[in-house]
Amino acid sequence: MKLVLSLALLGIADSTFLLIHGCFGEYCVFLPFDEKIPAILGLLWFLSTPLAFKLEKIRIFWQLLGILGIAILLVISIVFSYFCILCFLAHVIGLIMIVLSTKNR
Question: What SS3 state is found at 98?
Fold first, then answer.
């Protein structure tokens, strides 16, 4: 649980940075939508982590939303040849959190 919460804090920091600064330089390229939308959704997802660990039904919904969000954003990344290392960092952190949360029942 402590590791998941620590990862959530890292995800919050990453999403907040992306929300404030957006993508920058050669690390990010054009997206067909406002780049802040995924950062806002990621931030909300990471912020909901403590609630997800208090209630089992919320945790399952939280896990499904995380998997769905990561999958959609990875498909968008592939289709539009979009590369953002901080975005991918958030995806990896989220995936690790989901895996750990399934083992933490």
Answer: helix
Q: Please check whether residue 30 is in contact with residue 83, taking contact to mean a CB–CB distance below 8 angstroms.
A: no
User: What residues contact residue 58 under an 8 Å CB cut-off, 6+ apart?
Assistant: 48, 51, 52
**What pTM did the predictor assign?**
0.85
Per-range mean pLDDT, top range of 37-41, 71-75, 78-82, 97-101: 97-101
Closest CA to 82 of 16, 19, 38: 38
Q: Which helix (H) or strand (E) holds 55?
A: none
User: What single-letter amino acid sits at 103?
Assistant: K
CA distance 11 to 60: 19
From the list 17, 104, 23, the residue with the least C-alpha distance to 62 is 104
Q: What is the pLDDT of residue 26?
A: 47
